[in-house]
């Protein structure tokens, strides 16, 4: 999806929310951004079952949260925050949670979520895992999350700072500072991966 397509989606989401068509907005968001968000959850959980449970939580939270969304960021960035929080809550409660049986909200949204999961899993299962991916998977989770958001999703540093920051409502100066810190950390992670690739014979030393 290119920037123009995302801009059209964001404009349509704003329009539907302004009209208080939150079910329509939630359906559009899940249909448009759901595949990349579910892929993000699979990458972070490391298995499809937990990712599917977190995606169900995410979908319901989007539907419930849209009326309160203040548009301080793009809907896409906000959706990543919701997905990350759903993943963290799911992990904290894993010992006492069972497979989700509750409704996700409107039946139309539940159907879209199921379709997104199915189509995304079909794509992920056909994607070949190579040695570089295995190296990335061996990194600590914060580094893997940083790589997924920047490399796989292409998010701007300020959006990544908002997604990964421990608090909410940070000012622009704090966001810029956190974005600069994450850029430095990202470079260190890239250097570490390159060293691993050299050791494995996948890259030559300069």
Category from helices, strands and their pairing: mainly alpha
- What is the terminal-to-terminal distance? 35 Å
How many E strands?
Answer: 0
Could you tell me the mean pLDDT?
A: 85
How many helical elements? 9
**Low-pLDDT sequence parts:** 98-102
Could you tell me the radius of gyration in angstroms? Answer: 18 Å
Largest sheet: none
Level of helix content?
over 70%
Sum up the overall morphology in one term.
globular
H/E topology pattern: HHHHHHHHH
Give the strand content: under 5%
The protein's oligomeric status is single chain
Task: Describe the protein's architecture and organization.
This protein starts with a helix and ends in a 7-residue tail after the last helix. The chain has helices spanning 3-18, 22-45, 48-65, 75-92, 107-126, 131-137, 141-152, 157-164, 172-199. By secondary structure, it is mainly α.
Question: Main attributes?
Answer:
single chain, 206 residues, mainly alpha, 73% helix, 0% strand
Give a topology summary.
Blueprint: H1 3-18, H2 22-45, H3 48-65, H4 75-92, H5 107-126, H6 131-137, H7 141-152, H8 157-164, H9 172-199
Helix pairs in contact: 1-2, 2-3, 2-4, 2-5, 3-4, 3-5, 4-8, 8-9
Can I get a quick summary?
This protein has 206 residues and is mainly alpha-helical. The protein is built from 9 helices and no strands.
